[in-house]
Amino acid sequence: MHPSEETLLALASGEADLPLRATVEGHLASCPSCRTTLGELTAAGGALLRGLAPAPPPDHLWQQVLARVTPGKPPAASALDPLAALPLPEETRRELPPLCSLRWRSAWTPKARYALLARERATGSLLLVGHMPPGRYFPRHQHPGREDVLVLAGGYEDERGRYEAGEYAVYEPGSQHRPATEPGEECWILFRLEAPIRFLGWRGGLQRLLASLP
């Protein structure tokens, strides 16, 4: 699976938020087809800009650009880097803000866990990394908002099919699924959530109860 052309256009135009950029850039690292499509979309935008009448940039723009650019390559991951042990593509790492530590949380499945990597204030979307051991399933749940998933290592399957490392999946608002790993294969994913998921069945009732507690 691949990101839609609309998603790639959001990346090319600069409209994608940080969680979306991080997931899509990670997929592009291993997908020549999507890199080609992105290049075509970028070329179209460049042609449009070249057709516009030239205009001088604001005086403060260059200083803002200089303040945001860090020369040279990003530093290599070290033992003190909380991301060092994660199977993240370098393209994804470059999008992430510096982190002092990762706070792992239980994912409602034995030995499964997830951690927050970034939060986009403007859109409210979250970027998270998750790990599920072999032979497990994540409880059935619904997505009130869109979810973008990049498989980092291993794989999982659900009602839509099987997803392996490097593949990209999108779950639209209102969709439901129950991801599961094979007995001999773990799974690492990077995922963007526009809204927290809602569990179904008794877990959903417990989730609502916990949310209502002071």
Give a description of the structure.
Helix 1 packs across helix 3 (32-50). The chain has 2 domains: 5-68, Arc Repressor Mutant, subunit A (Orthogonal Bundle); 98-212, Jelly Rolls (Sandwich), CATH 2.60.120. The chain has helices at 5-13, 18-28, 32-50, 61-68, 90-93, 202-212; strands at residues 105-106, 113-119, 126-132, 141-142, 147-158, 161-164, 168-171, 176-177, 187-193, 198-199. Strands 1, 2, 3, 5, 6, 7 and 9 form a 7-stranded antiparallel beta sheet that branches. With 214 residues, it is α+β, with helices and mostly antiparallel strands. The chain is globular, with a radius of gyration of 19 Å. The chain has 6 helices and 10 strands. The longest helix has 19 residues, at 32-50.
Task: Write the topology of this structure.
Elements lengths: L4 H9 L4 H11 L3 H19 L10 H8 L21 H4 L11 E2 L6 E7 L6 E7 L8 E2 L4 E12 L2 E4 L3 E4 L4 E2 L9 E7 L4 E2 L2 H11 L2
Antiparallel strand pairs: 1-2, 2-3, 3-9, 4-8, 4-10, 5-6, 5-7, 5-9
Helix pairs in contact: 1-3
Structural category is: alpha+beta
Indicate the CATH class of the largest domain: Mainly Beta
Number of strands: 10
User: Helical segment tally?
Assistant: 6
Largest sheet: 7 strands, antiparallel
List the secondary-structure elements in sequence, H or E: HHHHHEEEEEEEEEEH
Unreliable sequence segments: none
Overall geometry comes to globular
- How helical, in percent, are the residues? 25-40%
> Gyration radius, to the nearest Å?
19 Å
Terminal Cα separation, in Å? 42 Å
The percentage of residues in β strands lies in: 15-25%
So, CATH architecture of the largest domain?
A: Sandwich
Residue-averaged pLDDT:
87
